[in-house]
Amino acid sequence: MFIDTHCHISNEYYDDIDKVIEEDKKAGIEKIIISGCEETEIETTIDYINKYDIAYATIGYHPSEADNVSDEDINKLEKKIVNNKKIVGVGEIGLDYYYGKENIDKQKVLFEKQLSLAEKLKLPVVIHSRDATKDIIEILSKYDVTGVIHCFSGSLETANIFISMGYKLGIGGVLTFKNSKLYQVIEKIDLSNIVLETDSPYLTPEPYRGKTNSSKYISFIAKKIAEIKNISIEEVSVKTLENTYNVFDLN
Ligand code: NI
């Protein structure tokens, strides 16, 4: 059994979401955590967790929304979170300098407001960090929160910093890509620091790279971790489930 700790679900990507969920269940997916991180996606995500028993969510505003989110939006976000037990964290939130640094200050303000919210609600956070590691670490260290570093693909040194701060690393399809150096990190860190995620519909693992991703492909990521660490896939399953339950209250 597996839990996909990070995926996106929408009619934009899938024709028949009932079928996607059925296939996930058949593939041994115990639960999925949908990340709703833009205004409309937040609404549809809440619909899906109300509809599907295996679906939980984290909601929060992605750094790409930094120019659009008001304090009123953050208040509404808080109400949505406290009103639904299946919303188990704040995210994905963070900093993204890949597309440019024009609005760095706005990104930081939005990020910190949501970290404060997570701290207040005592919920884990899901962190989006792209070309912004130094600032992410500096800001996270100011807040009494932990959670998951989504789609981790940094160095061993960076991995160890996040681990020492109490974070788990979200490991996905990138690990299976031929040119990825992420295996060098996975080799060296303890399995207790890893949770599995697909980030579907993106980042489909090999051998399906290029197709639309979904949670059912998560076993290819687990298999790769098992190979790298020379352990069984069952061990990866058991341990990553345990790690996931340590971060998220999935009841
Ligand atoms: Ni995502």
Please write out the topology:
Blueprint lengths: L1 E6 L9 H10 L2 E8 L2 H13 L3 E5 L11 H12 L4 E10 L7 H18 L3 E6 L2 H8 L6 E3 L6 H9 L3 E4 L11 H6 L5 E3 L21 H12 L3 H15 L4
Parallel strand pairs: 1-2, 2-3, 3-4, 4-5, 5-6, 6-7, 7-8
Bound molecules: nickel (II) ion (NI).
Give your account of this protein's structure:
It is a single chain. This protein is an alpha/beta fold and 251 residues long. It has a single domain, classed as TIM Barrel (Alpha-Beta Barrel), CATH 3.20.20.140. Helix content is 41%, strand content 18%. The protein is built from 9 helices and 8 strands. Strands 1-2-3-4-5-6-7-8 form an 8-stranded parallel β-sheet. Strand 7 (168-171), helix 7 (183-188) and strand 8 form a beta-alpha-beta unit. The model has no long low-confidence stretch (mean pLDDT 97). Nickel (II) ion (NI) binds at residues 6, 8, 35, 92, 199.
